[in-house]
Amino acid sequence: MKQTYFTAGPAELYPTVSQHLQTAMDEQIGSISHRSAKFRSIYQFCDEQLRELLTIPESHGIFFTGSASEVWERILLNCVEHESFHLVNGSFSKKFCDYATALQKYAHKQEKPFGEGFDYSEIEVPEYAELIAVTHNETSSGVQMRPVDIHKLKRSHAKKLIAVDMVSSAPFPDLDFSLVDTAFFSVQKAFGLPAGLGVWIANEKCLEKAETLKHGDQHIGAHNNLPMLWKNYKTYETPATPNVLFIYLLGKIAQDFNRIGVENLRRETEEKAKMLYKFVESHPQFSPFVKNDRHRSRTVVVANTQKPSSEIISKVKESGMVVGSGYGQFKDTQIRIANFPATDVEQIGRLIEVLGKI
Ligand SMILES: *Cc1c(COP(=O)(O)O)cnc(C)c1O
């Protein structure tokens, strides 16, 4: 049976993917040189569409990597000499912090119990931290940090760089890139593409920092370091042979999103999130895991289940829908429902109907 995937990534493919894929095949995208004018125009198109979608100013470059977790390492190598500071409220933010330790940085962290989020007022940034790492949407726990809090954090620590993991929410959060120095996402979450491409947005301040570290004989990495990515980016090229097909597809999906309008996408995401939270709050078999509404993710809804989650997951599957299990220790007691643009109000409504009969 054909399933609708409400999983948090890989996720349901955006409905237009197969048609764009067919066009890519017809145009033999898979065989063109990454040093050709054709590729440069594909990169440029993707860049322009993402700029429009996320309101990215000229001070920032847009680069491609293998995945989002690769970007954790790139940011730490290129933007941190000694100390980073991590807001940890789930497994992904914790991994970002673990990468810092593995790269022999001094990684400070402020940590929250699973299911709780951060507000600006309670954050204490260590004096010597060069970079503040925040996760807009914790895919593991279903917790979000509101852009307003992220912006305040940067304003009050203007000299530090701020990095935002927007992997499982972009293009939903309305981030002000005049404040956000660097951000990143993967395409297999809310952009509704198969996995295989990471997108790294970074500004000139990040580049300056990387140049300074490099000239100070610090190791900034041989592969995809920022100065090299930026140099190639000037002609819409990449240091290594990139995933040309996916850069093409991402440009097309971003264009589709722009045609709908990011405001409309965001409004629809809010509307579907409301439907899901209202349901899990009112149904006796479920309850929302994240108690505080302002910390509730709008793109990954996590619900506690009365019955073992595996029972719910298999029941839902019989109706042609896939929801995710809880993360880590919550595997058996929670379900996670992705709320990405690929599934519309009607599909969310149908999922709620099926869950309601359990
Ligand atoms: C999925 C995810 C990542 C890692 O993305 P990959 O594409 O697997 O490298 C990082 N952060 C968050 C919040 C995620 O949801």
UniProtKB/TrEMBL annotation:
Cofactors named for this entry: pyridoxal 5'-phosphate
Top-level taxon of origin: Bacteria
Organism, scientific name: Larkinella punicea
GO biological process: glycine biosynthetic process, by transamination of glyoxylate; L-serine biosynthetic process; pyridoxine biosynthetic process
EC number assigned by the record: 2.6.1.52
Record's keyword terms, sorted: Amino-acid biosynthesis, Aminotransferase, Cytoplasm, Pyridoxal phosphate, Pyridoxine biosynthesis, Serine biosynthesis, Transferase
Domain Aminotransferase class V: 127-326
Pathway, per record: Amino-acid biosynthesis; L-serine biosynthesis; L-serine from 3-phospho-D-glycerate: step 2/3
Protein family membership: Belongs to the class-V pyridoxal-phosphate-dependent aminotransferase family. SerC subfamily.
Catalytic reactions of this protein: 4-(phosphooxy)-L-threonine + 2-oxoglutarate = (R)-3-hydroxy-2-oxo-4-phosphooxybutanoate + L-glutamate; O-phospho-L-serine + 2-oxoglutarate = 3-phosphooxypyruvate + L-glutamate
InterPro entries from the UniProt entry: Aminotrans_V_dom, Pser_aminoTfrase, PyrdxlP-dep_Trfase, PyrdxlP-dep_Trfase_major, PyrdxlP-dep_Trfase_small
Gene Ontology MF term list: alanine-glyoxylate transaminase activity; L-serine-pyruvate transaminase activity; O-phospho-L-serine:2-oxoglutarate aminotransferase activity
Designated name of the protein: phosphoserine transaminase
